Amino acid sequence: MEETPTAESILKPLMDLMPGFKNFAVPQHSGVCPKPEFAIFGKRIIMDSQCNLAEQNRSALFAVMAAVWALSAAFIVLRA
Q1: Is residue 20 situated within a structural domain?
Q2: CA distance 13 to 9
């Protein structure tokens, strides 16, 4: 009877499939909140309250969106 394959021997062909991805790193970036400006009736309006609101609630937004993506992934996996 042949030996039972190890997890490493099973996953090795998959891991060696695309060796370029082993050293992949997401590039650093910084986002800037858009602040539309316009003039109306001789007065300059700058809309920046959405930036302040998003910054104040950053952790809550992160948690909600992480849950949304996790649920989306779960639905995709469960439908397969």
Answers
A1: no
A2: 8
